[in-house]
């Protein structure tokens, strides 16, 4: 009996794989050509980098909130608020343009509804700081006797 006779019926004989014409023949061929070699040593200028003068997003937000905290408190009426979208608008008591309010700027667990009297401070909205939004937003409780 030959080795082919003992093979499982229907299986192919095992042959070693042929070398690919593209496969490298020696470890030297794995190195990049000299023209593509990069020096991986640390840059001498790396320790002398100057930090960017532009404030980070966190600093910008913090300073804008700090400016808003120092500003006056305004009052208005909730024009509309969408719980699903997480934002709404306030009609200021002085009759100005409606002001945007986001759920993250509302104090506590309160969710405003149309007609609620509210107090708030204002903060400019990036990127151009032309529009404003309400921050430190809370409901004004009216006690009825």
From TrEMBL:
Cellular-component GO terms for this entry: cytoplasm
Residues spanning the membrane: none
* Composition bias, Pro residues: 14-24
Query: Which Pfam families does the UniProt entry name for this protein?
Result: CSD (PF00313)
The protein's name:
Calcium regulated heat stable protein 1
- PANTHER family (alphabetical): CALCIUM-REGULATED HEAT STABLE PROTEIN CRHSP-24-RELATED (PTHR12962), CALCIUM-REGULATED HEAT-STABLE PROTEIN 1 (PTHR12962:SF3)
GO BP terms in the entry: regulation of mRNA stability
User: Which residues does the annotated region (Disordered) include?
Assistant: 1-57
Please provide, alphabetically and separated by semicolons, the GO molecular function terms listed in this UniProt record: mRNA 3'-UTR binding
What keywords sit in the KW lines?
Phosphoprotein
CDD domains from the UniProt entry: CSP_CDS (cd04458)
Q: Which PROSITE patterns match?
A: CSD_1, CSD_2
Q: Which organism is it from?
A: Oreochromis niloticus (Nile tilapia)
Which InterPro entries is this protein grouped with? Ca-reg_mRNA-binding_domain (IPR052069), CSD (IPR011129), CSD_CS (IPR019844), CSP_DNA-bd (IPR002059), NA-bd_OB-fold (IPR012340)
Where does the CSD domain start and stop, copy by copy?
Answer: 73-139
């Amino acid at each position: 009996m030959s080795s082919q006779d003992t093979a499982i019926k229907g299986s192919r004989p095992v042959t070693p794989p042929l070398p690919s014409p593209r496969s490298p023949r020696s470890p030297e061929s794995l190195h990049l050509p000299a023209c593509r070699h990069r020096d991986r040593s640390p840059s001498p200028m790396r320790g002398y980098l100057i930090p960017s003068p532009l404030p980070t997003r966190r600093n910008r937000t913090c300073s804008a909130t700090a400016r808003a905290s120092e500003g006056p408190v305004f009052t208005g009426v909730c024009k509309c608020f969408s719980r699903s979208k997480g934002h709404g608008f306030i009609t200021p008591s002085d009759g100005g343009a409606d002001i945007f309010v986001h759920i993250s700027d509302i104090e506590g667990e309160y969710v405003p509804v149309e007609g609620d009297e509210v107090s708030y401070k204002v903060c400019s909205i990036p990127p151009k700081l032309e529009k404003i939004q309400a921050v430190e937003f809370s409901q004004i409780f009216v006690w009825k006797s």
